[in-house]
Structures are given as structure tokens and as C-alpha cells.
Amino acid sequence: MVSVDYRFAPETPIPGPQEANYAALLWLAGHAHELGVDPARIVIMGESAGGGLAASLAQMARDGGGPKPAGQVLIYPMLDWRTGGADCPYRNRHTGEWLWTREKNRFGWECLRGEYAPTDERKGWFSPALAEDLC
């Protein structure tokens, strides 16, 4: 197992955390044999914000021709920056009702977003649910 000490928002917004995770994936795949790792069996994993970053990492690897993960383990991932906000297409009345409130969710996403407008080709790397191609 490799755990990435990636940079956190708001000090480092997109693309900092995503690039750190992608660099770690490239390093792991490049050193797989000396570490005793089968490069065809690398699985990426994360929880909460890390789950969203793992989902975006899979897209980055696909888009950049990087190592193809054998799988993803996404534990309550943050996948859509619109969740709980005015632009949320789901309108789930239970979103943010308990511990992780709508306000906390919006704050977390705004910290990661920084000055980025999620409208260009990186939008799925920022918010994986926005990707036009999930294959």
C-alpha cells in the first residue's frame, strides 16, 4: 500500500492535489517491479475528498495515457461539486442533514476549486461526476 501525502486545499486548490496523486501513481507504476508490485493490479482508493481524488485520478490516468488502475475503491466519495448547492441537479432533501452539512460540503468544494471555473476539459478531474466520458 502506498499512501500519498498530497497537498490540501485551500492552500493548494486544483490541480495541486490531483497532480500529486497522479505523480504518485506514475512513481508506483515506474517502480513496481523493484517494490514487488504487479503493475497490472494497482488499485486506487480514497475516502470522502480522497475518494473524489481517486475517481479523478482514474480519469487523469486514462486521459494522460498513464497506468490503467485495475480498480477503484471509493468510500463515500465527493464526486459532484454541485451537491447540496443551488446548482445541484439531484435535489435530494436529505443531503447534508446530519454531520456533513450542505454548508460544509460547499466550503470544501470551494476550497478545492479556488479560482477554477469547472467548464474546461479538466472539469472531471475537479469534480468526477462532470466528466463527459466515464469509461
CATH homology group = Alpha/Beta hydrolase fold, catalytic domain
Assembly context of the chains: single chain
> Which percent range describes the beta-strand content?
5-15%
Q: In whole angstroms, how far apart are the ends? A: 25 Å
> How many separate helices?
5
- Tell me the number of structural domains: 1
Number of strands: 2
Tell me the Rg in angstroms.
15 Å
Can you walk me through this structure?
The chain is mainly α and 135 residues long. It has a single domain (16-130), classed as Rossmann fold (3-Layer(aba) Sandwich), CATH 3.40.50.1820. The protein has 5 helices and 2 strands, in the order H-H-E-H-E-H-H. A two-stranded parallel ribbon has the order 1-2. Strand 1, helix 3 (49-63) and strand 2 form a beta-alpha-beta unit. The longest helix has 15 residues, at 16-30.
Key words describing this protein structure:
elongated, 135 residues, Rossmann fold, 5 helices, mainly alpha, two-stranded parallel sheet
In short:
By secondary structure, this protein is mostly helical. The chain is 37% helix and 7% strand.
Helices and strands, with pairings:
Blueprint: H1 16-30, H2 32-35, E1 43-47, H3 49-63, E2 71-75, H4 102-113, H5 123-126
Parallel strand pairs: 1-2
Helix pairs in contact: 1-3
